[in-house]
Amino acid sequence: MIVTALVVFVGCSVWTVVYSFTASRALPVSKFVGLDQYERLFSNARWEQSVTNLLFYGVFALVFSFVIGFVLAALMDQKIRFEDTFRTIYLYPFALSFIVTGVVWQWILDPGLGLQATLRGLGWETFSLNLIGSKDTVIYALLIAGLWQGTGFVMVLMLAGLRGIDEDIWKAARVDGIPKWKTYVFIVIPMMRGVMITSLVIVASGIVRLYDLVVALTDGGPGFASEVPAKYVFDHMFARANIGQGLAASTMMLLSVLIIVIPWAYLEFGRKKGR
């Protein structure tokens, strides 16, 4: 397993970075061109749009998935009836692939086939829901579909963290007359630091690699309004036969993942080692 990790992950990552400085087109070549590929990358309006979209999607996906996931977990932690059933229902979308999720939500949001057509057929003639057809709103369609699939997973992680809180803490808070919301905000959530950080790393890494959902739901359109970095990489490497440009974009994605993973590794392992 160690050899596999070194060859496949580390080796391929190094190869990606090295050949991002070459003039590779349809096939890899060893002609180094310095930072030319990166200059083209950052002067490309399509790349700028993809980064902007990912930042917008990422910020709102993180905030809403954590808030909704925690609220659902807190409600599930109240020892409600049919807890297993509700947990399965909330987690079920996560078991689906992003391709399936994208296709399903494409049908739901299709103006001539989905929710809009259904409600108009029921008599609401003025109802309008054309998120995927407008450049200004298509990113919201991606966000809705992404939250529908990923929030249940965050809920399960949060629920595991809540179940790890000692019952005596809740009893002490009730004896002291501390409101429940204050107990969550000032006592419980700080104690769930490890779960929060782990959830953040998992969700953020998935956001950086966002690809399947975009291809299935919007294919990057209308125009490039819903373009994301992973699709930019794939299109340049396989559709446009521009390996060098694709690898430069891929290297920037790798850098963004390292920016997430390295602080997490330090917080999780560095401090423990120093104790």
Characterise this structure.
It is built from 13 helices and no strands. It is mostly helical and 275 residues long. It has one domain (44-274): MetI-like (MetI-like fold). Helix 2 packs across helix 13 and helix 10 runs antiparallel to helix 13 (243-274). It is flat, with a radius of gyration of 22 Å. The relative contact order is 0.14. The mean pLDDT is 89.
Judged by helices, strands and strand pairing, the structural class is mainly alpha
Give a count of the beta strands, DSSP E runs of length 2 or more. Answer: 0
Helices and strands, in N-to-C order? Answer: HHHHHHHHHHHHH
CATH architecture level-2 label? Orthogonal Bundle
CATH C-level label: Mainly Alpha
Oligomer: single chain
Described by the principal axes of the CA atoms, the overall outline is: flat
The rounded Rg comes to 22 Å
Give the rounded overall mean pLDDT: 89
CATH fold field value: MetI-like fold
Proportion in helices: over 70%
β content, as a range? under 5%
CATH superfamily: MetI-like
Keywords: Cell membrane, Membrane, Transmembrane, Transmembrane helix, Transport
Domain ABC transmembrane type-1: 51-266
Transmembrane segments: 54-76, 88-108, 138-162, 183-208, 247-267
Subcellular location: Cell membrane
